[in-house]
Amino acid sequence: MKFPVLIVALVAAAVIAFVAMNSQREVAPNASTTDPSVSALAPISPVRTLTSSSCASDGCPVSCESGEILLSAICISGSKGRFSDMLRVEQDKMTATCGNKAGSILVYCGRP
Predict the structure, then answer these.
(1) Where is the signal peptide (predicted)?
(2) 45-81: pLDDT as tens digits
(3) Is the pLDDT of residue 109 over 80?
(4) pTM of whole model > 0.70?
């Protein structure tokens, strides 16, 4: 594995671990954990991954949904990856794009 790809993978793993550690599970008030009739809430991942492969035609713009935060955007070109340096805010949404030489984009969105 090449060194830049390893750095990108480590940063993405760190972001996911940080968000997962800071997420909180919601527990119903006055719910007893020993009561068998009370079911535990299933953990929902606070991180969502989006991809787009239309970079050659339109720069593969990707935005997170309302209420989410764009955590990371990585432009993939062959076996190389680099962070997107083209970020813009339109209508209260941050959009990441790559140049037309990239093959795809990998975006991580997170819920606070």
Answers:
(1) 1-19
(2) 789 999 998 888 888 899 998 888 999 999 999 899 9
(3) yes
(4) no
Residue 20: how many other CB atoms lie within 10 Å: 13
Place of tokens 């993978």: 9
Which SS3 state, helix, strand or coil, does residue 66 take?
A: coil
In the prediction, which pLDDT does 100 show?
85
Going from the N-terminus, what domains does the chain have, and what CATH number goes with each?
Answer: 3-24+45-110 (2.60.40.4230)
Collapsing DSSP to helix, strand or coil, 3 comes out as: helix
Q: d(Cα 84, Cα 106) in Å, to the nearest integer?
A: 9
